[in-house]
Structure formats: structure tokens, C-alpha cells
């Protein structure tokens, strides 16, 4: 499976363990942080940790070759799956607690997303 840089970043933001370029022992939170940092580096914008906002932005501008193949079309289903994952929700709460994020002031990862 070939993925573009933006597609790789999105998969990492969703907590997927990518065999290429990602240590296998990383925690879910580390994978999410890596995906976020990678997306920020290729897009030059920071949309926080909200995967739906990233998907919309990447798709609109084809940032990082997001639409180069049709693989981006499956992203809404992957996002929904991550949003429903209790482990992702726990990782997000942990990340927000570590960063002392006030949801009313920041664009944190929503409680239910990963």
C-alpha cells in the first residue's frame, strides 16, 4: 500500500502504528503526537489534533498529495473508527491533561477522537 505524506500523517494522527518510520513500541499518544507534528510540518498550519479538521483541510488544498490516490476517500471511515475507540479517548484525555489544555481556549483533540 502506497501512501502520500499527508495520508501517512493522517494515519499516525489516528493512532495507527505505521511500520515505516515509526518505532513499534510507541504508545498511542506518541503516534498521535507524531502524526500531528508531521502534518504541521508539511502543511505549515496547525489545526490541533482534530482529525476531521485535518481531513477537510488536506482534501481542500491537496496538501502533501492528500488526494493523489483515492486512499483519502476511506479516511472518513477511519476517522469514525478512531472516534469510537475507547483507547483513543483515554489517550486524548491523557494528552490534554499533560498539556493542561483548556478546551474553551485551545483547539485540543476532542475527548472522543484519536
List keywords for this structure.
114 residues; mainly alpha; 5 helices
Write a compact overview of the structure shown:
The chain is mainly alpha-helical and 114 residues long.
Walkthrough of the structure:
The protein is mainly α. It contains five helices and no strands. Helix 1 runs antiparallel to helix 2. The chain is globular and about 35 Å long. The two termini are 22 Å apart. Mean pLDDT is 84; it is low at 107-112.
Extract low-pLDDT stretches: 107-112
Average per-residue pLDDT, rounded, comes to: 84
Q: Total strand count, please?
A: 0
Series of secondary-structure elements, N-terminal to C-terminal: HHHHH
What class, by secondary structure content?
mainly alpha
Helicity range of the residues? 40-55%
Number of helices: 5
Net shape: globular
Largest sheet: none
Q: How far apart lie the N and C ends?
A: 22 Å
Amino acid at each position: 500500500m502506497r501512501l502520500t505524506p499527508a495520508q501517512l500523517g493522517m494515519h499516525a494522527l489516528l493512532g495507527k502504528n505505521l511500520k515505516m518510520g515509526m518505532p513499534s513500541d510507541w504508545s498511542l499518544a506518541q503516534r498521535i503526537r507524531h502524526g500531528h507534528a508531521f502534518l504541521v510540518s508539511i502543511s505549515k498550519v496547525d489545526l490541533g489534533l482534530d482529525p476531521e479538521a485535518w481531513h477537510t483541510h488536506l482534501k481542500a488544498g491537496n496538501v502533501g498529495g492528500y488526494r493523489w490516490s483515492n486512499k483519502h476517500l476511506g479516511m472518513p471511515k477511519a476517522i469514525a473508527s478512531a472516534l469510537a475507540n475507547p483507547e483513543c479517548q483515554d489517550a486524548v484525555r491523557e494528552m490534554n491533561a499533560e498539556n493542561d489544555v483548556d478546551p474553551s481556549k485551545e483547539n485540543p483533540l476532542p475527548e472522543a477522537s484519536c
